[in-house]
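Hi L., both proteins are below.
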Amino acid sequence: MRPIIIAECCQNHNGDKEILKGMIHAAAENGADYVKIQSIRSSDLTYRERFEEGETAADGTVKTIKRPYQPELERLAKLDLSLEQEAWFVEECWRAGVAPMTTAFTRSVVKDIKDLGYEAIKVASYDCASYPLLEDLKKDFSTIFVSTGATYDDEIAKAAEILRGTNFHLLHCVTIYPTPLEEVHIRRMSFLRKFTHQVGYSDHSKPSTTGLWASKIALALGASCIERHYTVLPADQTRDGVVSITPDMVRELREFADLSRYEQMEIIKRELPEWEQTLGQATRPLSHAEMLNRDYYRGRFASKVDGQPVYNWEE
C-alpha cells in the first residue's frame, strides 16, 4: 500500500487565505495525499495562572514553562480561520486534487466542522487520551489519525480500543520542537503496531540541519504515513517554520516513499551511515522536555460552557 504523505499547514498560512491557497496547490503538485490545517479557535484558549510566569527550580531546572495567556491570545487571534474559510479550504483542496484534513482541538469545534466535508480528522498528541473527544470523532469521521507523543502506553491502548471499528492510524511522535535525530525513537512504531497495522510518524525534526532523514527512516521501517509541518514561506516568517518542510521537500519525500523498501534502505545506509542512532526505544519514560510540553499543551484549549472551560477529557 502506498504510504500517505500529509502536508500539515498548521498556522504557517499566517491567517492569509492567499498564502493558504498557494500551500494547498503546491502540496498537491508535489505529491501530498492530504493537506491539513488546524481548527483552532483563539476564543477556546484557556487561562491557567501557573503558566503566566512559569517556575524554575534553584538549580535552573524548568518545572513549568512560561507561556502568558494574553500574548498567546493576541497571536492566535490573527490566525483564526472562520467556518466559511474552512469550508472554502475543503473545496479548494478538492479543486487542487488533494484530500482535506484538519485537527480539532475542542469538542465544540467538532460539532462545528463535522459537516464541512473533511475526508479525515487528526487528533493532536495531547488529546490521544481525551477519550470523550475520541468518542465524538468516532461518530462523525470514519478516518482518524491520532498522534501519540507525550502519551503513556496505557492511554494509547485505551484510545485504540475506543477507536476500534474505525479506519484509524496511530502516529508515532516526539513532542520536542525540533526533535534531534538521536531522540526520534523510530522503534516506537513497533509498539504501536500492537494496536493497528496503520502506524505512521509525525516528524518534528529540523529540516535545515537533519533534512528528511527521520521521515525517510520511518518509511523504510514500514511507516504507513508521514506527517510533516509544511510551509511556502521562509522559515523565519512563521512560528512553526523551523520544523517545516518546503514544497520541494514534499516532492523529495513522495519520491522516496514510492521506492521499494530495499531501495530506501540502500540509500539510507549509503548516505547516513549513523542512521541507527534514530532507532531508540520502543517503550521508554517520557523525557523532561516532553513532560513539560504535556503539562502545558494538554488543556491549552477547552470548550466553553456557561463561560467555564470543559476540557476534552471531561464528560
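That was the first. Here is the second:
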Amino acid sequence: MTNVGSLATKPLFGLPLAELWFALLFFIFGMFLFLDGFDFGVGVLFATRTDDHEKEQLLAAVGPFWDGNEVWLVVFGGALFAAFPSVYANLFSRYYLLMFAILAALGLRGLAPEMYEEREDDRWRTLWGYSFVIGSTVTPFLLGLFVMNWLIGATGLITPVGVLGGLTVLVLTVVDGAAFLGLKTRGALRDDMRNRGVRAAVGYLGGVIITLGSIYVTEPALRSSFRSPLIVALVILTATLIGIYVVALRRNRYYAAFAATAALVFGLVALVATLLFPYVDRTAGLTIRDAIISTLPLNLMSIMTSVLLPIVLMYFVVLYSAFSGPIDTEETYR
C-alpha cells in the first residue's frame, strides 16, 4: 500500500506518471479540439448561409455548448503548467504573440453571437456575422500553427509546416461542424451541411498527407519517426475514418459520422504526440522525464486529477444529454 512517506520518493503505485501526464495533456487538448472544434466548424459554415433563419439555426445549435467546450483549453493550459512548468514557460515566451492572437480570436468568436442578437439592424448583424466567421476561422488556424511549431521545435512564429498544419486543423473543424449540424438540423440545411462535410473530409485527408510530407522533407530529425508502426497505423486509420465518415454522411448516419470525427481528431492528436515523444519541448531539448515536476507534487496532482476529471467528464455527459437531438425549427440563439 502507498503511504504518505512514499509519496515523496516513489511514483504512485509505481506508475510511469511522466508518460501518463504527457498522454493526459494531449487527451485534454484532443477534447478541446473535438468539442470546441465543431463550434469553430459551425462558425466557418455560418459564412455559407444567406438566409437569416438558417443563420439563427446555426447559432442556436452551438448556443448551449461553446462556452463549456472552451473549459478544455483552460484545463490544457493548467495541466501543462502544473506538470511541465518549464515547457509552459518556454512555449508561452517563445510564442507569446501567437498566444495573444489565439486569445483575441477566441474572444471575438465568443463575443460575436452575443452582439449579433442585440439588434435587428442589417448592418449590425452583418458586422457581427463576419466577426463570428473570422473568430471561428482564425482560432483553429492559429491553434494548428502553434501545435505544429511546437512539434518541430520552431523558434519563429510562421513556418511552412505550421501554416499547413493550421489549414489542416481548420478543415478538420469544418468536418466536425458538418457532422454536428447533421445531428442538430433538418431538411435542406442538413442536406447542404452533409455535402459540405463530404468535401471537407476529402480536403482534410489531403491536408494530412501534405503536412506530413512537408514535415518529412523539412525536418530530418523526425524522419526516423515515420518508420514507426504506430505512425503508419495512425495514417492508415485516418484514411479509413475518412471513408467511414463519408459513407455515414451519405447514408444519413449522423451519429456514426460524429463518432468518426471524434476518432479523426484524437487520431491527429495522437499522431502529433507520437512524433513529439519522448520530447515535450524539442527546441529546449527537454524530454518528458527532464521536464516533469518532482515526485511529491506529481503524486498529489495525480490523485486530485483521478477524482476531478471524472466529475468534469460527467458534467459534459449531462450537458450533451440535456441538449441532445435536433433543434426546433423556430429556435434561436437566445
